[in-house]
Structure formats: C-alpha cells, structure tokens
Amino acid sequence: MAHEMVRCPTTRSGRCFLLAVVFQLFLSSFASARLSPLPNEVIAGDRFREVEQDGVVPVQEVDRTYFLPNNSIPTHYSISLRTDIHNDVRTFDATTWVYLTVVEQTDRLTLHVQELSIKEVTLYRVPNSGGTPIQIDRPTYTINIVTEHIVFRSASQLPLGDYALQVSYSGSMRNYQSGYLISRYRDTEGLWRSVGTTHFQATLARRVLPCYDEPALKATFDLEITHHRTYSAIANMPRKSLGVDPTNRDYLVTSFERTPRMSTYLLAFAVTDFVKKGNSLHEVIVRSNAEADADYAVEVGASILERLGMYLDLSYYDYMPKMTSIAVPDRGTGAMENWGLVTYGEPSLLYNPAVNTYRNRKRVTTVIAHEYAHQWFGDLVSPQWWEFIWLNEGFATLYEYYATRLALPGDEYWELFSGEVTQRAFQQDASETIRPINWNAASQDDVPKLFDIIAYQKAGSVLNMFSKVLGETSWRQGLKAYLTDRELGAATEENLAEHLQRAIDGTDILPANANVRDLLASWTDGPGFPVLNVRRLYRDGAIILSQQRFLAEKVLPTGHVWHIPYNYAYKSSPTFYDLEQYEWLSSRAAKISTAIPDDEWVVFNRQQTGYFRVNYDARNWELLTEALLERHNDIHRLNRAQLIDDAFYLARADLLDMAVVLRMMQYLRSERDYAPWQSADKVLSYLYEKLRGTEHEHALLIYIDGLISDVYATTPVDTIDPSETTLFKYLRQLITAWGCRIGYKDCLERSREALRKEFVPEQGATVAPVHPDVRAVVYCYGLQEDSAAEFQGIYQRLMASGNQAERTDLIDALGCSKNPADIKTLLATVLFSAMPDSNFVYLSEERGRLFQAIYSGGRAPINAMMETLSDAVTVQQMMAIVGEGTITNAITNIAQRTNNAEEMAQFEAMLTALNGSLSPNTLENAREMAASRTQWFSTAEALIVGEFLERYNV
Q1: How far is 174 from 180, CA to CA, in rounded Å?
Q2: Residue 542 to residues 417, 538, 860, Cα–Cα distance (Å)
Q3: Which of 180, 275, 293, 183 has the alpha carbon at shortest distance from 232?
Q4: What does R_g of the chain's alpha carbons equal in angstroms?
Q5: Which residues of 98-116 are buried (b: 16+ CB within 10 A; e: fewer)?
Q6: Residue 525: what pLDDT?
Q7: What is the pTM of this model?
Q8: What angle do CA 660, 664, 666 make, to 5 degrees?
C-alpha cells in the first residue's frame, strides 16, 4: 500500500526530520552437493514455508513485540571502549552516551541490548540552548532476553525534548560473526596472535552498545578505543587523535572523527597489530606476514571505487573521507560493507598470483565490487526495514559484476552474470515454498534468513532486467535521484520506483498507462518467476504467448500475473545486441503478430536479460536444434547458454522431453564459448550423478566423449599461455575436468606427470611447479593410487601455507586421492589436530571442508571415508572435534552418491556401525535417501535418457 510521506525542509534537519523517520518506520512496520568436477561456489539460501494461493501474495504473521515503540529516537552515540585483545582477553568494558529525542511523552526508554552486563545508568536532560547535559535521574532497567529490549524506567514522565543516557557496561567476544569478534593467526615466528574486529549486521550492534538497532533509526557516532600500545585501532572514520591512557602508560587511546548519520549495523572498528598498504584515501589493512598479498586489492579497489562514483555521478568521497578494507584471518570467505571500513575474510581480499588461481582473483575482484557498491546502496541509503534488504543486496549483486566491466573490462566477469546469478536464482526460485522478494521477518530471529538467494541473486537479476528495459541513461538518472533524495536516510521499493518513473516521464519506454511501480511490484510482491510459453502458429508469423509460474516439480494454478518485458531475434533478423526494444505481456496470454518466416527459428529473451524461462512448441525447438548443429554462432552465446539451461529445467519439470535437451547439446562438439558449456555442465553433472556405477554409465561416457573430444584438443590440461583470456581459463578447467573424469588417458597421464615434476622430480631435474590456474584439475586427477609421495608433498604445503585460499584449494585436491590409505591418514589428522601443540593446524572451517573434499572427490575417497566412519570410537572422537553436524552432513552426501547394490551394501554396513553414535532418525533418513535413488530409474525421464543414450551409441 502506498502512503503519503511526511515532508520536511530540504535540509532534513531538526524535529521535523526526526518525526518523519518515526512516521515512515511506523508505516513500514505494517507494510546443494557438488556434482560438477568444478569448484563449488554456491551460497545456500533459506527456503520459506509459505505458499501462494490464487494469486494472493503470501503473508505471514509478524511478531511486533520485537519492534521498538518509537516514543524516542536516537540522534548521536558517543562510545568509549577498552579492550585487551592483545592478551587474548575476550571481554571488554565500555561506556556509551546515547543522545536521543523523546517524541512522545513517556517514562520508559526502550533500546536493544544482547548479553551486556550493565553496571551503571544515568539520565541527563540536554538543554535546548546546548551546553552541558543536566543529570535528572538514575533510571531502573529491565532486560527481555527474548526481544533483546532493555527498558530504562524514569521516576517521572519525560516531556518531549532531548536527552542523554549514559550507560557503563561490559561485554564478551565470540569467535564467529557476532558483535565484537576475536580472530587468531600465526605470525612469522609461528606464534598465535589475537585480533578484534566487528560484525553488526543485521541485529548485532546491540552486543557492543545499547542502541536503537533498527536500520531506519540512524544517528552519528563518536568512538574512542583504549588498547595496548603494540596494537592499533581503526574504524569507519579517520583517526582524530592518539594519546597515552592516563591510567596505564602501556595503553593508548585512539579517537575517531564523527561519522555521518548511519544505521547502527554499519558501525565498525578493529584492534589489531596489522600493517597498512595504500594511502590515506584508500588503504588495505592486513597481517604483516600477508602484506604482499594485499597489493592487488589496493589497486583494483581504488579503481572500482572511482568508477562506481563516476557511473553514479556521486563520488564516494563526497560523503566519506577515506576507505579502509581489512582482511580478517580465519573468518571464512564473507565480507561486510561497513561504511568506510569494509571487513573481509582473507580469501575475499588477498590475492597472490604465485599461489592463487584465476578463480581466486575473480572472487577478490567481485567481492570488493559488491562491498563497494554497498557504500551507496545500503550505507548512503539504507533499507527502511529488513523486508527491503534486497535494495542493498540486489544492487550490490548486480554491480559486483557490472562494476568490473567499468574498471576491468578485459577480465570478462560481466559475461558470467547470467550463469552465476540469474540461472542460479532460477534453481531455488522454482520451489513451491519460496518467498517473494518483499518479505518481512516473522520475528527478530528470522531477520538473518532474509539474506538469501532471493535478496541477492533474484533481486540482482530483476534489477538488471529493469535496467535494460528502462535504458542505460534513464536508469542511471533514476539511481542518482534516488540516492541523492534518500541520502543519509532510509528507503523502500516505492522510493526507488518513484525516481525511476521520473527518469522516464515523457518518454515512450513503457506501455501506455503503465508505471514503474506496478511493473516492478509484479516481480517483487509475488513468489517465483514465470515461464513464457511461445506457441507459434506457423501462419504469417502469428504467435500465442502465455505465462505460468515455473515450478521444478509440479504445476499449480496461480492468479498472479507478471508484467513480462520480452523481445526476440530470429534467423533473418538476429538482433541479439539490441537490448533497448521491448514489448510487454501483462496478461495470462496474448496473440501477437510478427514478421518471422514460418521456416525460421526464433529465440525470445535476448541475452537472457529477462528473469524468466522460455518454452517453445516442438517445431521451434527442432528448428533451434538444427540451427545450433549447423551454424551455432548465428545465435548469441548467452542465448545458447539460455537454451540449454531452460530446456534442461523444463524437461526436469515435465514441460519438455529430455531427449530434446540431449539432442540439442550435441552441437557442443563445436562450441568454444564458456557460457553454453557452463549450462551444459549442470546437465552432464546431473546425468553423471544419476548414472555413475549403473549399467548406463558407459553409454553416458561415450555421449560426453562425443561432446568434449574436439574441444579438449584445444584446452591443454597442464600448461597455460599468458595471452589466455579469463573465459578460456574457465572453459579449460571445465573441459579438462570432464576429460579426466571420464578417463581420458592423455588427461590423466599429463596430470600425473605434472604433479610428479613438482613434488618428486627425477634426480637432477628442476622442480616444475604446476601453474595455479591449472592446479585444480592437475592436483585432483594426478593423485592416483601410486602417488603417496605427491600426496604428502601437497599436505606439507597445506600445513606450511599462510594463504587461506591456497589452503582451501589444497584441501580440495587432497580429497581426490585414489589411495585409501591417504584418505584415512587425512581423516586421522583431524584427530591429531585436537592435541595440544599439534603440528596439524587447521583453521576454523577447514576440518569441515576436508570432509566435503573427500565425499566430493569420487568413489574411492568415499569408500575410504566409509571405512573410517564405520569405527564407533573414531566417530565419537571425530564428533567431539568437528561436531555432529559435520558427520551427519557427510553421511547425507554419501547417501546422495550411492548408486548400486554394492555401494548400498557398503553404505548399510557403515550405518549399522553408527548405531548409537548418531540418532536413529538421522540413520533412517540416510537409508531412505539412498534407497530412493533407485526409484528414478522407473521415471519417464530416466527411460527417455536411457533410450536416447542407447540409440546414440548405436
């Protein structure tokens, strides 16, 4: 529902603006397993249990007791915090002054806290004329640990006006992303060092200070940190002063400049013994023994930040005086966009070309672009409430790719958007229980669940679609107006739509009587996405278009209608690069007239910029297949990828015959572009996972060989050329991984030899390191039964490496070993690593990654893992170290890879041995999962696949 907003003077200062914030907040409160031989780069999203009924947007009851009452709002925080992180002390002391305005007479001030021990509270009245606050009370307080509210009760009613609440307290640190965090790393002498950083999104600032921890309740912040003199402190803003602590000369007090108005979740600081790279405008903070690995981030980050500012016509430095990025050790691969101080797990910021791969480089580049895009989308303008978190994450997902096109066009990362974002979103968004983009959290605990594939990949895809529909000029004009109008404040979808509409007023971009708000809402208010059915009449170009919700497993009636912007290209008019001309399907079905000759193919959704699948009548699918087999380059590479991806998932949903997919994919023997192969990889991985170890496996391998053999000859598995493009590297890894996987002798022998030359060269021979860009395939498939020395060499490198991305790659490689003894030894190191002063050192997430590497490494590693897990004592010891969840996850993944009677017998023997170690429910679920895999062979899909492969081989 649209509401008239409170309007204030353009300065947006004083009481009027504060009331407007409250009013707007009040309104808003109502308003996979790795099957491919390629690395797993999937971020899991959450599924929601709400179902659309008859076109009505699904709703859920929201527990409003979690909301603040809004009888007072913050204006400023002044925080003094003392930390002894240098000694690994995991507590801190602090005093925070909360400056606030009472906007409704009350005797209660309600803020957020979580696990803070309150020591003393004093309430002051702030004179209207300024000056020193006047103490008026020592309020009592109560804490609700469920809602995380702290209610300060005054002895009398507080009239409207300005106040200050002084709170002294202590808090604790954790070693995961929750408030003020502890991380540890080994220095150059091998000694453990502790550092402190923060992560406050979404509702975790309350773990460090009592605050109004809701995104629209912005304020300014002053911060000072007392820390040991061997450490230094950084924060959102530049340092204002540095002095000696008058109570202890071994400590320093670092004070920072005042921040702009911002949400509490964007406050950030760090206390470390790290070093700085870069300059005062753009710097990277990193541990000293990884200093050289920060050079790339310094250079590329500065370029991306500048290019984004030019693109939006709003320089970052118009709002913030500096940008600091910090690489946090042993914090996984995530990142957080704190305004002016972005935090990263080391693999997402550090890149060393000597040991890291082209995929690591891509990750670093795009994650930096994602977080820097947030400096505008999320930091300068924040979501009014968490249901609009997609206004942060959708834009950041879009520009994590597009910003690299602006700053580093030669890296071709924008070409990956369709496959990595849109097609990935389709997979989860095809669920019956998926949520729509606009979706409020039922409770405070549900807020983190909104940070899912819908907020990121789907929202990014929908925004990309509208950017193409509205055109580059109007899109950028609308974004600038949106950002400048809402700057230092909060926004809703309606605010965005309003400014995009103004940017196109007076043009004929949209159909008559259409507006951006209604068009956008059809994509954000309804769950799922449509399939556009194209039924050609083959009579003077006539086509019947219709739409229905695409679901992976069933067809359900729905009253929801999407406004679908569509375009098309055909044989005699291959206008695949014209992305500014659209027509609209805004009804369930429509008959259109075209100039397409009846004997020519047609492709809808040029370059797959629209967020929908496309299905065709049987004849057009046949025309497309013939075109691909004869002259595949007549169809744009992204549309070739789209055809494979759409056809495969349409077949999985019983909307198309799987034989259409398999026949169409035969053209791939001539394909040299990565995007279509990226789509094909999903098809081949699905079929391989189903048919491996069965009577149909050999037929499938022959089919795959027919597709890749010619391409394989052009993609060397063990060498690189400096002139290779990024997308060629992606293609090489995909093709050679399949070549080795299906048993190409050349691939296996080259991998084996390259690995030997690096780790056990012949006497007198020079060590020949494998280039990082081919290491994934060479290491994995070079570890055959007789490569124990090479296995030990890789493991020793893992233990010696301080580069977290390299360590992950090495763990993945070790999991591929075909030698059962090596796998058992690898699992034993998990036990050894728990011993005091162990030489087997893993980072916090690496033990779990080791299990994943083994069950993803092939049948031989799985068999060795099952033998180890069949020992009850070993399992109990393992669970004490890695947790029951890691073991249960391994069992589940083994069940998903159990394909025949022999494997089922091995699996059952392991489950029997696990009686008493895991719950009966866990074991029974695993049995049912493994047993259900045989049921696929009685489906029509399986019979069609088997028939096709049998005929193909004949």
Answers
A1: 7
A2: 33, 7, 56
A3: 275
A4: 29
A5: bbbbbbeebebbbbbbbeb
A6: 93
A7: 0.91
A8: 130
CA dist 138 and 136 (Å) reads 7
Average pLDDT (311-318) is: 97
Predicted confidence (pLDDT) at residue 219 exceeds the cutoff of 90: yes
Model confidence pLDDT, tens digit, residues 374-407: 999 999 999 999 999 999 999 999 999 999 999 9
Q: What is the pLDDT of residues 25-44, one digit of tens each?
A: 333 333 333 344 443 333 32
Q: How far apart are CA 230 and CA 223, in angstroms?
A: 20
Q: Which two tokens stand for residue 368?
A: 């930096």
Annotate 370-392 with three-state secondary structure. HHHHCCCECCCEEECCHHHCHHH
Find the helix or strand (DSSP H, E) in which 543 lies: strand 543-549
Residue 145 near residue 152 (C-beta atoms within 8 A) = no
Q: Per-residue confidence at 850, pLDDT binned at 50, 70, 90?
A: very high
Could you tell me the two tokens for 135? 């103490």
Active site residue 371: yes
Q: How confident is the model at residue 226 (pLDDT cuts 50, 70, 90)?
A: very high
Name the token pair of 572.
């005699």
User: Cβ–Cβ contacts within 10 Å for residue 571, how many?
Assistant: 18
- Scanning 39-196, the segments in alpha helix (DSSP H) are none
Name the catalytic one among 52, 337, 346, 371. Answer: 371
Hey, what are 203's tokens?
């509702």
Identify the band that residue 247 occupies on the pLDDT scale cut at 50, 70 and 90.
Answer: very high
CA distance 516 to 501: 6
Q: Tell me if the bond preceding 653 is cis, omega within 30° of 0.
A: no
- The response to whether 199 counts as a known ligand-binding position is no
Q: With the CA atoms of 616, 617, 620 and 624 taken in that order, what torsion angle do they form, in degrees rounded to the nearest 10? A: 50
374 marked as binding residue: yes
Give the mean pLDDT of 859-881.
93
Q: What are phi and psi of 48, to 5 degrees?
A: -115, 150
| 370 annotated binding-site participant | yes
Residue 70: per-residue pLDDT: 85
Q: What is the average pLDDT value for the chain, to the nearest integer?
A: 91
Rounded CA separation 72/371 (Å)? 32
The per-residue pLDDT for 23 is: 37
User: 905 in helix, strand or coil?
Assistant: helix
Mean pLDDT throughout 616-642? 98
What is the predicted pLDDT for the residue at 60? 65
- Which pLDDT does position 59 carry in this prediction? 60
Give the residue among 495, 503, 456 at the shortest CA–CA distance from 31.
495
Q: Around Cβ 630, how many Cβ atoms within 10 Å?
A: 10
> What span, in angstroms and rounded, lies between the C-alpha atoms of 153 and 159?
14
The whole-angstrom separation of Cα 62 and Cα 445 is: 11
> Using CA atoms, how far apart are residues 860 and 819, in angstroms rounded to an integer?
7
Q: Which stretch of DSSP H or E encloses residue 469?
A: helix 459-470
Reported as a pLDDT band with limits 50, 70 and 90, residue 54 is: very low
Asked if residues 634 and 627 have their Cβ atoms less than 8 Å apart, the reply is yes
| Distance in angstroms (rounded) separating the CA atoms of residues 361 and 297 | 10
Tell me, what's the pLDDT at 58?
54
Average pLDDT over residues 926-951: 92
Torsion of CA 256, 259, 264, 266, to 10 degrees: -90
Q: Inform me whether the pLDDT recorded for 290 exceeds 90.
A: yes
**Ranges of H-type helices in 818-900:** 820-832, 846-855, 859-869, 872-882, 884-895
Quick check: 426 and 529 in contact, CB under 8 A? yes
- The pLDDT of residue 96: 98
CA distances from 302 to 157, 361, 795, 810 (A): 52, 16, 36, 31
DSSP code for 194? E
Query: Sheet holding 239-244: strands in order across?
Result: 134-137, 117-125, 161-172, 91-102, 72-83, 220-228, 251-256, 239-244
